[in-house]
Protein backbone atom coordinates (compact mmCIF):
# COMPACT_ATOMS: atom_id res chain seq x y z
CA UNK A 1 0.00 0.00 0.00
CA UNK A 2 1.41 3.40 -0.96
CA UNK A 3 0.69 6.03 1.64
CA UNK A 4 2.87 8.86 0.58
CA UNK A 5 4.31 10.01 -2.70
CA UNK A 6 7.45 12.07 -2.42
CA UNK A 7 7.91 12.99 -6.03
CA UNK A 8 5.50 14.20 -8.68
CA UNK A 9 5.58 12.47 -12.03
CA UNK A 10 4.59 15.60 -13.81
CA UNK A 11 7.04 17.92 -15.47
CA UNK A 12 6.99 21.57 -14.53
CA UNK A 13 6.70 22.93 -11.01
CA UNK A 14 7.26 20.24 -8.42
CA UNK A 15 5.18 20.07 -5.28
CA UNK A 16 8.11 21.13 -3.09
CA UNK A 17 8.47 24.31 -5.11
CA UNK A 18 4.95 25.26 -4.13
CA UNK A 19 6.07 25.82 -0.56
CA UNK A 20 5.91 29.43 0.49
CA UNK A 21 8.13 30.63 3.30
CA UNK A 22 6.00 32.59 5.71
CA UNK A 23 5.67 33.31 9.37
CA UNK A 24 2.91 31.19 10.87
CA UNK A 25 0.14 33.24 12.35
CA UNK A 26 -1.92 30.50 13.95
CA UNK A 27 -2.76 31.87 17.38
CA UNK A 28 -2.18 30.01 20.57
CA UNK A 29 -5.34 28.15 21.53
CA UNK A 30 -7.29 29.94 24.21
CA UNK A 31 -9.13 27.26 26.19
CA UNK A 32 -12.86 27.84 26.55
CA UNK A 33 -14.21 28.85 29.96
CA UNK A 34 -15.20 26.02 32.31
CA UNK A 35 -18.93 26.71 31.84
CA UNK A 36 -18.59 25.64 28.19
CA UNK A 37 -18.42 21.88 28.56
CA UNK A 38 -16.61 20.37 25.56
CA UNK A 39 -18.68 18.08 23.35
CA UNK A 40 -16.65 15.03 24.36
CA UNK A 41 -17.69 15.48 28.00
CA UNK A 42 -21.32 16.37 27.36
CA UNK A 43 -24.26 13.96 27.36
CA UNK A 44 -25.77 15.88 24.43
CA UNK A 45 -24.50 16.92 21.05
CA UNK A 46 -25.56 20.47 20.07
CA UNK A 47 -25.72 21.17 16.32
CA UNK A 48 -24.00 18.01 15.13
CA UNK A 49 -22.02 18.22 11.91
CA UNK A 50 -23.08 14.78 10.77
CA UNK A 51 -26.21 12.79 10.01
CA UNK A 52 -27.35 9.26 10.74
CA UNK A 53 -25.72 5.99 9.72
CA UNK A 54 -28.41 4.55 7.40
CA UNK A 55 -28.12 7.68 5.27
CA UNK A 56 -24.61 6.67 4.15
CA UNK A 57 -25.75 3.15 3.23
CA UNK A 58 -28.68 4.58 1.26
CA UNK A 59 -26.37 7.00 -0.58
CA UNK A 60 -24.13 4.12 -1.62
CA UNK A 61 -27.10 1.97 -2.72
CA UNK A 62 -28.52 4.74 -4.90
CA UNK A 63 -25.25 4.64 -6.86
CA UNK A 64 -26.01 1.08 -8.01
CA UNK A 65 -28.03 0.42 -11.18
CA UNK A 66 -31.65 -0.64 -10.51
CA UNK A 67 -30.99 -0.86 -6.77
CA UNK A 68 -33.36 0.19 -4.00
CA UNK A 69 -32.57 0.55 -0.31
CA UNK A 70 -35.14 -1.16 1.94
CA UNK A 71 -35.03 0.55 5.32
CA UNK A 72 -35.89 -1.75 8.19
CA UNK A 73 -37.30 0.87 10.52
CA UNK A 74 -39.91 3.58 10.92
CA UNK A 75 -41.02 5.84 8.09
CA UNK A 76 -39.21 8.81 9.56
CA UNK A 77 -35.84 7.13 9.07
CA UNK A 78 -36.61 7.16 5.33
CA UNK A 79 -38.56 10.37 4.93
CA UNK A 80 -35.91 12.74 6.14
CA UNK A 81 -33.27 10.95 4.02
CA UNK A 82 -35.40 11.32 0.89
CA UNK A 83 -35.95 14.95 1.79
CA UNK A 84 -32.18 15.46 2.11
CA UNK A 85 -31.53 13.76 -1.24
CA UNK A 86 -34.14 15.99 -2.85
CA UNK A 87 -32.61 19.09 -1.32
CA UNK A 88 -29.10 18.22 -2.48
CA UNK A 89 -29.76 16.66 -5.89
CA UNK A 90 -33.30 17.80 -6.73
CA UNK A 91 -33.92 14.35 -8.20
CA UNK A 92 -36.34 11.56 -7.24
CA UNK A 93 -34.79 8.90 -4.99
CA UNK A 94 -36.65 5.61 -4.57
CA UNK A 95 -36.24 4.33 -1.02
CA UNK A 96 -38.53 1.68 0.47
CA UNK A 97 -39.42 1.41 4.14
CA UNK A 98 -40.59 -1.41 6.41
CA UNK A 99 -42.83 1.21 8.03
CA UNK A 100 -42.51 0.16 11.64
CA UNK A 101 -45.39 0.98 13.96
CA UNK A 102 -46.10 0.06 17.57
CA UNK A 103 -46.57 -3.65 16.83
CA UNK A 104 -43.14 -3.89 15.16
CA UNK A 105 -41.59 -2.16 18.18
CA UNK A 106 -43.07 -4.90 20.39
CA UNK A 107 -42.93 -8.01 18.21
CA UNK A 108 -40.05 -7.12 15.87
CA UNK A 109 -40.01 -6.37 12.15
CA UNK A 110 -40.14 -9.92 10.70
CA UNK A 111 -43.57 -9.50 9.11
CA UNK A 112 -42.70 -6.03 7.78
CA UNK A 113 -39.53 -7.25 6.10
CA UNK A 114 -41.11 -10.31 4.49
CA UNK A 115 -44.10 -8.38 3.12
CA UNK A 116 -42.06 -5.31 2.19
CA UNK A 117 -39.41 -7.19 0.24
CA UNK A 118 -42.08 -9.20 -1.61
CA UNK A 119 -43.93 -6.02 -2.61
CA UNK A 120 -40.70 -4.44 -3.78
CA UNK A 121 -39.73 -7.44 -5.91
CA UNK A 122 -43.25 -7.69 -7.45
CA UNK A 123 -43.73 -4.04 -8.21
CA UNK A 124 -40.26 -2.61 -8.84
CA UNK A 125 -38.30 -5.63 -10.12
CA UNK A 126 -35.02 -4.28 -8.77
CA UNK A 127 -31.70 -5.96 -9.57
CA UNK A 128 -30.54 -5.35 -6.02
CA UNK A 129 -32.15 -4.63 -2.68
CA UNK A 130 -29.98 -3.36 0.14
CA UNK A 131 -31.62 -3.99 3.50
CA UNK A 132 -30.52 -1.12 5.69
CA UNK A 133 -31.20 -1.42 9.40
CA UNK A 134 -31.94 1.47 11.77
CA UNK A 135 -31.76 2.26 15.47
CA UNK A 136 -35.14 0.66 16.16
CA UNK A 137 -34.56 -2.65 14.34
CA UNK A 138 -31.10 -2.94 15.90
CA UNK A 139 -32.38 -2.24 19.42
CA UNK A 140 -35.27 -4.69 18.97
CA UNK A 141 -32.69 -7.22 17.77
CA UNK A 142 -34.26 -8.14 14.42
CA UNK A 143 -32.51 -11.18 12.96
CA UNK A 144 -32.33 -9.77 9.44
CA UNK A 145 -30.50 -12.71 7.87
CA UNK A 146 -33.13 -15.23 8.99
CA UNK A 147 -36.02 -12.89 8.03
CA UNK A 148 -34.45 -12.49 4.60
CA UNK A 149 -33.95 -16.25 4.17
CA UNK A 150 -37.62 -16.76 5.03
CA UNK A 151 -38.69 -14.02 2.59
CA UNK A 152 -36.59 -15.60 -0.17
CA UNK A 153 -38.07 -19.07 0.48
CA UNK A 154 -41.61 -17.69 0.28
CA UNK A 155 -40.86 -15.75 -2.93
CA UNK A 156 -39.27 -18.83 -4.48
CA UNK A 157 -42.41 -20.80 -3.68
CA UNK A 158 -44.72 -18.12 -5.03
CA UNK A 159 -42.83 -16.91 -8.13
CA UNK A 160 -40.39 -19.71 -8.93
CA UNK A 161 -36.62 -19.96 -8.42
CA UNK A 162 -35.78 -17.42 -11.18
CA UNK A 163 -36.90 -14.58 -8.95
CA UNK A 164 -33.85 -15.05 -6.75
CA UNK A 165 -31.52 -14.96 -9.76
CA UNK A 166 -32.99 -11.63 -10.81
CA UNK A 167 -32.65 -9.84 -7.47
CA UNK A 168 -29.54 -9.78 -5.31
CA UNK A 169 -29.66 -8.87 -1.62
CA UNK A 170 -27.14 -7.11 0.57
CA UNK A 171 -27.67 -6.51 4.28
CA UNK A 172 -26.05 -3.43 5.82
CA UNK A 173 -26.27 -3.08 9.59
CA UNK A 174 -26.43 0.60 10.42
CA UNK A 175 -27.39 1.29 14.04
CA UNK A 176 -27.17 5.05 14.06
CA UNK A 177 -26.18 5.23 17.73
CA UNK A 178 -22.87 3.57 16.75
CA UNK A 179 -21.74 6.01 14.06
CA UNK A 180 -22.61 8.59 11.46
CA UNK A 181 -23.43 8.61 7.72
CA UNK A 182 -19.68 8.27 7.06
CA UNK A 183 -19.58 4.91 8.82
CA UNK A 184 -22.84 3.92 7.08
CA UNK A 185 -21.21 4.38 3.68
CA UNK A 186 -18.08 2.62 4.88
CA UNK A 187 -20.11 -0.39 6.04
CA UNK A 188 -22.07 -0.44 2.77
CA UNK A 189 -18.80 -0.55 0.77
CA UNK A 190 -17.66 -3.48 2.90
CA UNK A 191 -20.96 -5.38 2.73
CA UNK A 192 -21.55 -4.88 -1.01
CA UNK A 193 -18.08 -6.20 -1.88
CA UNK A 194 -18.36 -9.02 0.64
CA UNK A 195 -21.77 -10.13 -0.67
CA UNK A 196 -21.17 -9.72 -4.40
CA UNK A 197 -17.48 -9.87 -5.40
CA UNK A 198 -16.03 -13.14 -6.69
CA UNK A 199 -12.61 -14.25 -7.91
CA UNK A 200 -12.86 -16.13 -11.21
CA UNK A 201 -9.13 -16.87 -11.51
CA UNK A 202 -8.87 -14.68 -14.64
CA UNK A 203 -7.21 -11.47 -13.41
CA UNK A 204 -8.14 -8.24 -15.18
CA UNK A 205 -6.36 -4.92 -15.66
CA UNK A 206 -9.36 -3.03 -14.29
CA UNK A 207 -8.98 -0.43 -11.56
CA UNK A 208 -11.81 0.08 -9.09
CA UNK A 209 -12.55 3.29 -7.22
CA UNK A 210 -14.74 3.89 -4.16
CA UNK A 211 -15.43 7.64 -4.15
CA UNK A 212 -17.17 8.31 -0.82
CA UNK A 213 -19.48 11.32 -0.67
CA UNK A 214 -18.23 12.96 -3.83
CA UNK A 215 -20.79 14.71 -6.01
CA UNK A 216 -21.81 13.78 -9.58
CA UNK A 217 -19.60 16.58 -10.96
CA UNK A 218 -16.63 15.18 -9.04
CA UNK A 219 -17.23 11.68 -10.38
CA UNK A 220 -17.37 13.05 -13.92
CA UNK A 221 -14.09 14.86 -13.33
CA UNK A 222 -12.47 11.63 -12.13
CA UNK A 223 -13.77 9.81 -15.23
CA UNK A 224 -12.34 12.58 -17.39
CA UNK A 225 -8.88 12.08 -15.81
CA UNK A 226 -8.97 8.28 -16.10
CA UNK A 227 -10.14 8.47 -19.70
CA UNK A 228 -7.29 10.85 -20.55
CA UNK A 229 -4.90 8.34 -18.99
CA UNK A 230 -6.51 5.48 -20.92
CA UNK A 231 -7.02 3.24 -17.88
CA UNK A 232 -9.82 0.70 -17.63
CA UNK A 233 -11.78 1.75 -14.54
CA UNK A 234 -14.98 1.17 -12.58
CA UNK A 235 -16.44 3.62 -10.11
CA UNK A 236 -18.40 1.84 -7.40
CA UNK A 237 -21.53 3.54 -6.05
CA UNK A 238 -21.53 5.85 -9.06
CA UNK A 239 -24.26 8.41 -8.40
CA UNK A 240 -23.30 10.59 -11.38
CA UNK A 241 -26.06 9.24 -13.64
CA UNK A 242 -28.54 8.17 -10.99
CA UNK A 243 -28.83 11.32 -8.90
CA UNK A 244 -28.11 13.78 -11.69
CA UNK A 245 -29.72 12.82 -14.98
CA UNK A 246 -32.67 13.72 -17.21
CA UNK A 247 -35.94 12.02 -16.34
CA UNK A 248 -35.84 9.68 -19.32
CA UNK A 249 -39.20 7.94 -19.83
CA UNK A 250 -40.90 9.68 -16.91
CA UNK A 251 -43.70 9.72 -15.92
CA UNK A 252 -45.13 6.83 -17.96
CA UNK A 253 -42.38 4.34 -17.28
CA UNK A 254 -43.08 2.46 -14.04
CA UNK A 255 -40.98 1.31 -12.33
CA UNK A 256 -38.64 4.16 -13.15
CA UNK A 257 -34.90 3.65 -12.84
CA UNK A 258 -32.30 6.18 -13.96
CA UNK A 259 -29.93 4.89 -16.64
CA UNK A 260 -26.70 5.05 -14.62
CA UNK A 261 -25.21 3.44 -11.56
CA UNK A 262 -22.63 0.72 -11.04
CA UNK A 263 -23.82 -2.61 -12.45
CA UNK A 264 -24.08 -5.64 -10.16
CA UNK A 265 -21.68 -7.50 -12.52
CA UNK A 266 -19.05 -4.84 -11.86
CA UNK A 267 -19.19 -5.68 -8.17
CA UNK A 268 -18.98 -9.38 -9.02
CA UNK A 269 -15.84 -8.87 -11.13
CA UNK A 270 -14.15 -6.74 -8.44
CA UNK A 271 -12.49 -9.90 -7.11
CA UNK A 272 -10.40 -10.05 -10.32
CA UNK A 273 -9.44 -6.35 -10.28
CA UNK A 274 -5.85 -5.19 -10.55
CA UNK A 275 -6.31 -2.65 -7.76
CA UNK A 276 -8.93 -0.87 -5.74
CA UNK A 277 -8.66 2.75 -4.58
CA UNK A 278 -10.60 4.28 -1.71
CA UNK A 279 -10.67 8.03 -2.32
CA UNK A 280 -12.21 8.76 1.08
CA UNK A 281 -10.40 6.71 3.74
CA UNK A 282 -13.28 6.91 6.22
CA UNK A 283 -16.05 6.38 3.66
CA UNK A 284 -15.11 3.31 1.65
CA UNK A 285 -11.71 2.36 3.06
CA UNK A 286 -13.23 -0.71 4.75
CA UNK A 287 -14.44 -2.05 1.38
CA UNK A 288 -11.01 -1.65 -0.26
CA UNK A 289 -9.27 -3.33 2.67
CA UNK A 290 -11.72 -6.22 2.66
CA UNK A 291 -11.17 -6.84 -1.07
CA UNK A 292 -7.44 -6.80 -0.48
CA UNK A 293 -7.67 -9.31 2.39
CA UNK A 294 -10.18 -11.63 0.73
CA UNK A 295 -9.17 -11.58 -2.94
CA UNK A 296 -5.60 -10.24 -2.71
CA UNK A 297 -6.47 -7.20 -4.83
CA UNK A 298 -3.98 -4.36 -4.24
CA UNK A 299 -5.69 -1.67 -2.17
CA UNK A 300 -4.78 2.01 -1.97
CA UNK A 301 -6.42 4.22 0.60
CA UNK A 302 -5.62 7.76 -0.50
CA UNK A 303 -6.64 11.23 0.59
CA UNK A 304 -9.50 12.80 -1.33
CA UNK A 305 -8.00 14.28 -4.53
CA UNK A 306 -8.69 17.94 -3.74
CA UNK A 307 -5.87 20.38 -4.53
CA UNK A 308 -2.47 19.88 -6.11
CA UNK A 309 -0.72 17.48 -3.73
CA UNK A 310 -3.60 15.04 -3.29
CA UNK A 311 -4.40 14.96 -7.02
CA UNK A 312 -0.72 14.40 -7.77
CA UNK A 313 -0.71 11.50 -5.36
CA UNK A 314 -3.77 9.87 -6.93
CA UNK A 315 -2.55 10.23 -10.51
CA UNK A 316 0.96 9.11 -9.71
CA UNK A 317 -0.38 5.99 -7.96
CA UNK A 318 -2.81 5.21 -10.80
CA UNK A 319 0.03 5.69 -13.28
CA UNK A 320 2.34 3.35 -11.34
CA UNK A 321 -0.29 0.65 -10.92
CA UNK A 322 -1.69 0.77 -14.45
CA UNK A 323 1.62 1.42 -16.25
CA UNK A 324 -0.09 4.27 -18.14
CA UNK A 325 1.79 7.60 -18.34
CA UNK A 326 0.24 10.89 -17.30
CA UNK A 327 -0.58 12.60 -20.61
CA UNK A 328 0.24 16.12 -21.65
CA UNK A 329 -3.43 17.17 -21.39
CA UNK A 330 -3.42 16.47 -17.64
CA UNK A 331 -0.11 18.29 -17.16
CA UNK A 332 -1.70 21.24 -18.91
CA UNK A 333 -4.66 21.19 -16.48
CA UNK A 334 -2.22 21.07 -13.57
CA UNK A 335 -0.32 24.02 -15.02
CA UNK A 336 -3.52 26.05 -15.28
CA UNK A 337 -4.35 25.38 -11.62
CA UNK A 338 -0.84 26.46 -10.56
CA UNK A 339 -1.19 29.55 -12.69
CA UNK A 340 -4.54 30.37 -11.06
CA UNK A 341 -2.97 29.89 -7.61
CA UNK A 342 -0.11 32.26 -8.48
CA UNK A 343 -2.57 34.82 -9.91
CA UNK A 344 -4.63 34.92 -6.72
CA UNK A 345 -2.00 34.39 -4.06
CA UNK A 346 -2.27 37.98 -2.85
CA UNK A 347 -5.94 37.36 -1.99
CA UNK A 348 -5.53 34.03 -0.28
CA UNK A 349 -2.12 34.48 1.34
CA UNK A 350 -2.27 34.63 5.16
CA UNK A 351 -6.07 34.54 5.21
CA UNK A 352 -7.17 32.66 8.31
CA UNK A 353 -9.64 29.92 7.50
CA UNK A 354 -11.93 27.77 9.66
CA UNK A 355 -12.98 24.41 8.22
CA UNK A 356 -15.97 22.20 8.98
CA UNK A 357 -16.76 18.89 7.31
CA UNK A 358 -16.64 15.13 7.18
CA UNK A 359 -13.20 13.65 7.97
CA UNK A 360 -12.03 13.13 4.38
CA UNK A 361 -13.29 16.50 3.17
CA UNK A 362 -11.79 18.34 6.15
CA UNK A 363 -8.37 16.67 5.75
CA UNK A 364 -8.20 17.30 1.99
CA UNK A 365 -9.40 20.91 2.33
CA UNK A 366 -6.74 21.54 4.97
CA UNK A 367 -4.01 20.58 2.51
CA UNK A 368 -5.53 22.68 -0.24
CA UNK A 369 -5.82 25.85 1.89
CA UNK A 370 -2.21 25.38 3.01
CA UNK A 371 -1.20 25.15 -0.67
CA UNK A 372 -2.99 28.47 -1.19
CA UNK A 373 -1.01 30.18 1.55
CA UNK A 374 -4.00 30.30 3.90
CA UNK A 375 -3.80 29.54 7.60
CA UNK A 376 -6.14 26.90 9.03
CA UNK A 377 -7.30 27.90 12.52
CA UNK A 378 -10.24 25.81 13.80
CA UNK A 379 -11.02 22.53 12.04
CA UNK A 380 -14.23 20.77 13.00
CA UNK A 381 -14.30 17.11 11.92
CA UNK A 382 -17.97 16.20 12.37
CA UNK A 383 -17.39 12.44 12.59
CA UNK A 384 -14.55 11.43 14.88
CA UNK A 385 -11.68 9.98 12.86
CA UNK A 386 -8.16 9.21 13.98
CA UNK A 387 -6.91 8.86 10.39
CA UNK A 388 -8.28 12.29 9.40
CA UNK A 389 -6.81 13.91 12.52
CA UNK A 390 -3.43 12.31 11.74
CA UNK A 391 -3.59 13.50 8.14
CA UNK A 392 -4.48 17.06 9.24
CA UNK A 393 -1.59 17.10 11.72
CA UNK A 394 0.77 15.77 9.07
CA UNK A 395 -0.22 18.54 6.65
CA UNK A 396 -0.04 21.25 9.30
CA UNK A 397 3.37 20.07 10.44
CA UNK A 398 4.56 20.29 6.84
CA UNK A 399 3.35 23.89 6.68
CA UNK A 400 4.24 24.78 10.26
CA UNK A 401 0.74 25.51 11.54
CA UNK A 402 -0.96 24.54 14.75
CA UNK A 403 -4.71 24.65 14.21
CA UNK A 404 -7.22 23.50 16.80
CA UNK A 405 -8.69 20.22 15.58
CA UNK A 406 -12.12 19.50 17.02
CA UNK A 407 -12.32 15.84 16.17
CA UNK A 408 -15.87 14.47 16.50
CA UNK A 409 -17.07 17.64 18.20
CA UNK A 410 -20.18 19.69 17.41
CA UNK A 411 -20.86 23.06 15.84
CA UNK A 412 -21.74 24.56 19.22
CA UNK A 413 -18.13 24.24 20.38
CA UNK A 414 -16.73 25.29 16.99
CA UNK A 415 -19.00 28.33 16.91
CA UNK A 416 -17.78 29.43 20.32
CA UNK A 417 -14.19 29.31 19.12
CA UNK A 418 -15.01 31.22 15.93
CA UNK A 419 -16.86 33.94 17.82
CA UNK A 420 -13.85 34.50 20.04
CA UNK A 421 -11.26 34.32 17.31
CA UNK A 422 -12.84 35.30 14.01
CA UNK A 423 -11.40 33.72 10.87
CA UNK A 424 -11.34 35.53 7.51
CA UNK A 425 -13.11 32.73 5.64
CA UNK A 426 -15.10 29.59 6.53
CA UNK A 427 -15.02 26.45 4.40
CA UNK A 428 -17.95 24.26 5.29
CA UNK A 429 -21.29 22.74 4.35
CA UNK A 430 -24.70 24.39 4.28
CA UNK A 431 -25.23 23.97 8.01
CA UNK A 432 -22.49 26.54 8.62
CA UNK A 433 -24.62 29.33 7.14
CA UNK A 434 -25.98 30.62 10.45
CA UNK A 435 -22.55 30.81 12.08
CA UNK A 436 -21.16 32.54 9.01
CA UNK A 437 -23.96 35.14 9.03
CA UNK A 438 -23.74 35.72 12.74
CA UNK A 439 -20.02 36.41 12.82
CA UNK A 440 -20.08 38.04 9.35
CA UNK A 441 -17.46 35.88 7.75
CA UNK A 442 -17.89 34.60 4.17
CA UNK A 443 -18.77 30.92 3.82
CA UNK A 444 -17.43 28.88 0.92
CA UNK A 445 -19.65 25.85 0.64
CA UNK A 446 -18.12 22.45 0.09
CA UNK A 447 -18.48 18.85 1.20
CA UNK A 448 -21.63 17.25 2.55
CA UNK A 449 -24.36 18.44 2.65
CA UNK A 450 -24.67 21.43 0.35
CA UNK A 451 -28.37 22.03 -0.31
CA UNK A 452 -28.65 25.81 -0.58
CA UNK A 453 -26.72 26.30 -3.81
CA UNK A 454 -28.13 25.46 -7.22
CA UNK A 455 -25.75 23.45 -9.38
CA UNK A 456 -23.23 22.71 -6.62
CA UNK A 457 -23.49 18.98 -7.31
CA UNK A 458 -22.33 19.48 -10.90
CA UNK A 459 -19.30 21.66 -10.12
CA UNK A 460 -16.29 19.47 -9.31
CA UNK A 461 -13.80 20.27 -6.58
CA UNK A 462 -11.56 17.25 -7.26
CA UNK A 463 -8.74 17.03 -9.79
CA UNK A 464 -6.87 20.02 -11.15
CA UNK A 465 -9.87 21.52 -12.91
CA UNK A 466 -11.97 21.03 -9.78
CA UNK A 467 -9.22 22.67 -7.73
CA UNK A 468 -9.29 25.65 -10.05
CA UNK A 469 -13.05 26.03 -9.54
CA UNK A 470 -12.77 25.58 -5.79
CA UNK A 471 -10.05 28.22 -5.72
CA UNK A 472 -12.23 30.60 -7.75
CA UNK A 473 -15.07 30.14 -5.25
CA UNK A 474 -12.74 30.89 -2.32
CA UNK A 475 -11.23 33.96 -3.96
CA UNK A 476 -14.59 35.33 -5.14
CA UNK A 477 -15.96 34.96 -1.60
CA UNK A 478 -12.97 36.93 -0.31
CA UNK A 479 -13.43 39.58 -3.00
CA UNK A 480 -17.12 39.93 -2.19
CA UNK A 481 -16.49 40.49 1.48
CA UNK A 482 -15.72 43.80 3.13
CA UNK A 483 -12.74 43.23 5.42
CA UNK A 484 -11.48 45.80 7.92
CA UNK A 485 -8.95 48.28 6.55
CA UNK A 486 -5.96 46.41 7.94
CA UNK A 487 -6.87 43.43 5.79
CA UNK A 488 -7.94 45.16 2.60
CA UNK A 489 -7.14 43.79 -0.78
CA UNK A 490 -7.32 44.95 -4.34
S1 LIG B 1 -31.01 8.28 14.06
FE1 LIG B 1 -31.94 6.21 14.14
S2 LIG B 1 -34.14 6.60 14.53
FE2 LIG B 1 -33.23 8.53 13.82
S3 LIG B 1 -33.55 8.55 11.62
FE3 LIG B 1 -31.52 7.66 11.96
S4 LIG B 1 -31.86 5.47 12.07
FE4 LIG B 1 -33.87 6.43 12.29
Order of strands, main sheet, comes to: 11-10-9-12-13
DSSP helix fraction: 40-55%
- Can you summarize the main beta sheet? 5 strands, parallel
Instruction: Determine the CATH topology of the largest domain.
Output: Rossmann fold
Number of DSSP E strands: 13
Which spans have pLDDT < 50 for at least 5 consecutive residues? 1-6
Proportion of strand residues: 5-15%
Continuous helix count: 19
What does the average pLDDT come to? 92
What is the molecular shape? globular
Distance between the termini: 46 Å
The CATH homologous superfamily of the largest domain corresponds to Nitrogenase molybdenum iron protein domain
Query: In the CATH classification, which architecture of the largest domain applies?
Result: 3-Layer(aba) Sandwich
Tell me, what is the CATH class of the largest domain?
A: Alpha Beta
Structural class category: alpha/beta
Bound molecules: iron/sulfur cluster
As an assembly, this protein is single chain
Explain this structure:
The chain is α/β, with parallel strands linked by helices. It is built from 19 helices and 13 strands. It folds into 3 domains: 20-31 and 331-487, Nitrogenase molybdenum iron protein domain (Rossmann fold), CATH 3.40.50; 53-179, Nitrogenase molybdenum iron protein domain (Rossmann fold); 207-327, 3-Layer(aba) Sandwich (Rossmann fold). Helix 15 (359-371) links the parallel strand 9 (352-357) and strand 10. It is globular, with a radius of gyration of 23 Å. The relative contact order is 0.13. Iron/sulfur cluster (SF4) is lined by residues 52, 54, 73, 76-77, 134-135, 176. Iron/sulfur cluster binds next to helix 2.
